[in-house]
Specification:
Keywords: Signal. The chain is mainly beta. The chain is built from seven helices and 30 strands. It has three domains: about 90 residues, no CATH class; about 100 residues, Lipocalin (Beta Barrel), CATH 2.40.128; about 200 residues, Lipoprotein localisation LolA/LolB/LppX (outer membrane lipoprotein receptor (LolB), chain A, Clam). The chain has a 16-stranded antiparallel sheet that branches. Strands 17-24-25-26-27-28-29-30-18-19-20-21-22-23 form a 14-stranded antiparallel sheet. The chain starts with a helix and ends in a 13-residue tail after the last strand.
Length: about 450
């Protein structure tokens, strides 16, 4: 092998490395919108009523994002900054410092954050033909017909811009780089932001609200060409006309199917558990005895225990090295998550004591409200895989916390998450599980108070 050959090989290797490096760098920024609808639990409702919330964020290549897509300055408006680490899209809002994390799929075309499934859309240069409907939690709806440069508004309620639109208002439109300009037949004009995607014609995002394609309504209007795409994911929500027994049975059937995916008999046979996890430079060690209904959580910093908490039944204590303090009712409820909720809430013994009500089904995800031992939680279940995607803890005092699960691995026959994104209030944190110990034996001294 000559020196020239070696030089050519080294140059080729270096060039390939640069290509991979450039691709990696490009993947760290975005020029797209991620939009998702979540039907979240109303904290003020004892019945666990659902409230629709749309999330839409415009991410720019300069690592900034805009959440105010209904604002006139959305193209330049900066509401926060973002970064991408692995499959985590981490957002930080400028106004209050709050955080949000979206777990992206392998392709980046979808994402998950709590109850919301996000889809990636582009800055629009064209508007797909069709009727797009926006349904509010109050069951009221309004929509747009788009066809070949013409539009028709079908609303008799408050419009996106805050005015009133009468049924049938229409005119012509133009679109340029995500800016939708409407010219009504009566001479009035309006400007909205609009995002769509050639391969996702079942939804459009207008001024930050998500409108879904309604082919049944579109079929009533022969002047609108039917798009060659799959229909929108149906939104099934429970109503007062839905039979209670039906939604209870459907909810429990989903939970039982999820039980089988996550271990079935192996999960049901779980009597004790030890988990070691890391978050924010802390090491957390959780031990639980499901027969005794006791949970112990140890928080360590650089190998030194800084806090010890233990809950048994409906009470407990904490120890910080100086003295003991009784756990608040709110903290007791939070620790009960390790006994009754998430993967542990899928155990047959827990399901026997639970009521499970199907709330919504959309994008192959179902939302099930579960109540067990006075603890209420929402389960987001993947219908195709019968897998638990997220958990929503509802507490009137502490608010709502969501846990989004990923990196599942089978451990002693049980499918367990090794990564968990916790969103509580303004902050989001990543919890990585180092290890699980299935059915360990705990001597009585394991639950003794430190001296």
């Amino acid at each position: 092998m000559t020196l020239n050959t070696l030089v050519r090989i080294r140059t080729s290797v270096l060039f390939l490395c640069l290509l991979f490096s450039s691709s990696s760098l490009l993947a760290q920024t975005l020029n797209a919108v991620y939009a998702g609808t979540a039907y979240e639990y109303d904290q003020s409702s004892d019945a666990g009523a659902m409230v629709r919330t749309d999330y839409a964020y415009y991410f720019r290549p300069n690592s900034s994002f805009c959440s105010g897509l209904d604002k006139a300055d959305w193209q330049k408006r900066i509401d926060g900054t973002y970064s991408i680490t692995g499959n985590q899209l981490k957002m930080k809002f400028l106004n209050d410092g709050s955080e949000k994390i979206i777990l992206l799929s392998v392709t980046g075309e979808t994402g998950q954050s709590g109850a919301a499934t996000f889809v990636r859309l582009n800055i629009s240069t064209a508007v797909p033909n069709g009727f797009y409907k926006f349904v509010r939690s109050s069951s009221k709806a309004d929509g747009f017909y788009f066809t070949d440069g013409k539009f028709k508004r079908t609303a008799t309620l408050t419009t996106l811009s805050g005015g009133n639109a009468n049924s049938g208002n229409g005119g012509s439109y133009s679109i340029n780089q995500g800016q939708l300009d409407l010219k009504f037949d009566n001479g009035k004009t309006a400007t909205y932001s609009l995002f769509t995607s050639p391969d996702k014609k079942q939804i459009v995002v207008i001024n930050g609200d998500i409108y879904y394609l309604d082919e049944e309504e579109m079929a009533k209007h022969g002047d609108i060409a039917k798009p060659t795409t799959t229909t929108a994911a149906p939104i099934v929500t429970t109503t007062t006309t839905t039979k209670s027994n039906d939604i209870l049975e459907a909810g429990m059937n989903l939970m039982k199917a999820c039980n089988q995916t996550h271990g079935g008999k192996s999960l049901d046979a779980l009597t004790s558990l030890k988990a070691v996890m890391n978050t924010n430079n802390l090491t957390l060690t959780m031990t639980a005895d499901f027969n005794r209904q006791v949970v112990r959580l140890e928080s360590s910093l650089q190998g030194n225990v800084i806090l010890l908490e233990q809950m048994e039944g409906n009470s407990g204590w904490s120890f910080d090295g100086n003295g003991y303090v009784a756990l608040s009712p709110q903290r007791v409820t939070e620790l009960k998550r390790y006994l009754y909720c998430g993967i542990l809430g899928l155990k047959a013994g827990v399901l026997e004591k639970s009521t499970a009500t199907l709330q919504t089904t959309q994008y192959d995800l179902s939302s099930v409200m579960v109540t067990v031992n006075s603890v209420r939680a929402g389960y987001i279940i993947n219908n195709k895989a019968n897998k638990l995607e997220a958990l929503i803890m509802v507490d009137p005092l502490s608010g709502t916390s969501t846990f989004t699960y990923s990196d599942y691995k089978k451990t002693n026959g049980i499918m367990l998450p090794y990564t968990e994104i916790m969103q509580s209030g303004k902050h989001a944190q990543t919890i990585t599980y180092e290890s699980y110990d299935i059915n360990p034996s705990f001597p009585a001294s394991s639950w003794a108070k430190p001296k």
